[in-house]
What does this fold into?
Amino acid sequence: MTYTLYGMAGSLYTARARSYMRMNAVPFTEVKAGSEEFIGDIVPQIGRWIIPVLKTPEGSIVQDGADIIDHLDAAGYSKHPIYPHDPNLLVIAHLFELFGSHGLLRPAMHYRWNFDKVNLPFLRETFRDVLPSKLPKEAEDAAFLHASGRMRKAAEVFGVKPETQKLIEECYTQFLLLLDRHLRLHPFILGGHATLADYGLIGAMYAHLGRDPFPLQLMQIRAPNVFRWVERMNMAETFLDQNMTHAGSQLVETEDLPESLLNLMRFIADDYLQEITAHVESANLWLQSHPETQSGSPTNNKSMKSGMGLAPFLWRGTEIKTVVIPYRFYLLQRLQDAFDEQSDQDQAALRDIFTRVQLDPIFDRRCVRRMERKNNQEVWGDIQQCPRTI
Ligand SMILES: N[C@@H](CCC(=O)N[C@@H](CS)C(=O)NCC(=O)O)C(=O)O
It folds into this structure.
C-alpha cells in the first residue's frame, strides 16, 4: 500500500502535498521529477510536465496539490479534520490556502533568485531533482542554466522587478513577524491541529523560504517560531508544548478569534486582495472577448503563462502587473463555494469577520465562468450566476 509522490525538494506545490503525507503518516516513496519513470511513464499520462503527481497503490494518477490532499483525505488518512467543521474557520482555512499557494510567490521567487552569492550552489544541487539523471557535467550545467533562466523570467511575471524588491522584503518581513507572533501561542494556523490553512502556507514557507539558504537564515533569525512550525509541518509525530495556548488538538474559538490571526488576515487584505481582484477582472474581460470558449475547454494553464496575459493593479501604492493564472480561480472558487454553502446566519457572521479585516470583497470577486479540473488540468466550466460579480 505504498504511494509514489513525483516532485522536487525545492518545489512549492510538491511541498504542500508532501507535508500532508508526512504529517498524516501516509506511506510513500518520493521520486524525482527528472527520473525516467516520471518523464517516460507519468508525463504522457498527464499530457504536460507538471509536479506534484501522486500515483496510488492501485496505479491511478492524481495531479495537483489540492486534489492530492483531497484524495488522501477521502481515503481516511487525515489524523484530524483538515476541513474545519466550523463555518467561519472553514472559510478562513480556504483564505490561507489561496494566499499561501499564490500570494507568497513574490517573496518566494525574490529570495530564491536574487541572492545568487548565497543561494546558487545550493540551487544547482536542488535542481538536479528535475534534470535527467546522470547527465555529463557540461550538459547538466547547461540544463540548470536553462531551467533557472525560465524561473528568473517567472519571477518577473509574478512581479519581482528591481523596483519592487525593497517593498517585497519589507512586506515579507512584516508577514514573518506577524506569523511568528501567532505561532508562538498556536502550534498551527487555526489552533491545535493542521488544516487546509497550514497546507496552503507551507508550500512557499518550506520549499523556498524555509529551505533556500538566504531566506532560511532570515526565518531562523527573525521568526524562530515560524521555522519551528515549518519543521512541525514536516513530521509525523504529535507536537505538544505547554507554553502554547493550545495543548490539545482543538481549534481556536470562532467567537473569540485571536488578534494575531486577524492581523494575518489584515495582512492578506493589504497584500493580496487587489491582486486577486485584478485577476478576476482580467479573466472576465478575456471571457467576454472569447464567447466561443466552450465548457470543458482547457485553460492551457502553465505556471507562468496563461494566455490571458498580465493584469495591472496597485500593490501597496505601486502599480505592478502579474500573470493571470486560472488555477487561482479554482482556489478562490473553493473559498466562495464554502461561503455559499452556509446558512444566511452563518454567511452574515462570516461577512462580519471578513469586514473587520477588510477582506469582505473576496466573497464577491467572482469569475463569470466556473473553473473545473478535468483530466488533471484546469478547464472552463459553465457560466455562473453571481449577482455581485464585478
Ligand atoms: N496547481 C498546481 C500547480 C503546480 C505547479 O505549478 N507546479 C510547478 C512546479 S512547483 C510546475 O510543475 N510548473 C511547470 C513548469 O515549470 O513547467 C498544483 O498545486 O499542483
